[in-house]
Amino acid sequence: MNFKEKELIIFDFDGTLINSIPDLTLAVNKMLSHYKRESLSIEQVTPFIGNGALPLVRRALEFTMPNQNLSDSLLNEAFDIYLAAYKEVTCIDTFMYPGVLDTLIDLDSKGYKMAICTNKPFGFIEPILDKLEITKFFKSWIGEDSLSEKKPSAVPLLHLTKELQTSLEKSIMVGDSKNDILAARNAKMESIGVSYGYNYNENIADYKPTVVVDNFAELQALF
Do 145 and 75 have their domain in common? Predict the structure, then answer.
């Protein structure tokens, strides 16, 4: 199987192109320290990632405050603290997965349009792209707060195909999370699951993407 007829490749960000867990964990722990809670390890934070920033904060608080009722005011305060903390450490230890840079260069040379659809807040996307020096490869990017709905809704994928003037049939979603695969399915778009990402410690193959790859560089043979 190959996808050489595609025009647009839509990538998830965290867990697919980049490993941001060290910096996300640092920001979570800065938030938790405000409430005098013990720090969490990278392994503890990893399953909390995927639905966006607010669910990440909620899960961290629920884990460290198991007997406390989380009011909206507490959650909103913690969320603001987390966002401020993450803004300070957005791309300190975040790094690209093996094969990402070479593969982006390869796909770009073949003429594919590339975009990012992530459940990370929009304001954090470009600073990371700039720091990692890969901004030039992407025609567009949208975050969890860019539109009225986020993955697993089809809305972000439909938006990108329209913006970049192509069709669902000529587009494909690449991601590590069930949210990516479900969004593609909801949009009636093909998908590629990468097995090395976060995905709540679940097997991405269980969500039946069109293809599963174990290394990002495998995409070079598929396109």
Answer: no
Domain of residue 107, CATH code:
3.40.50.1000
Provide the residue range defining the domain that includes 77. Answer: 21-88
67: confidence class by pLDDT, cuts 50, 70, 90: confident
> For residues 26 and 23, what is the distance between their CA atoms, to the nearest angstrom?
5
Tell me the CA end-to-end span of the chain in Å, nearest whole number.
Answer: 10
- Using the CB atoms, write b or e for 164-177: b if 16+ within 10 Å: beeebeebbbbbbb
CA dihedral 153, 154, 160, 165 (to 10 degrees): -170
Both structure tokens of 204: 């991405």
Nearest to 187 by CA among 170, 199, 202: 170
Q: Residue 201: which of 20, 15, 55, 13 has the closest Cα? A: 15
Give the pLDDT confidence of 72-86 residue by residue, as tens digits.
999 999 999 999 999
CA distance 118 to 83: 16
Which residues have a catalytic role annotated? 12
Give the total residue count for the chain. Answer: 223
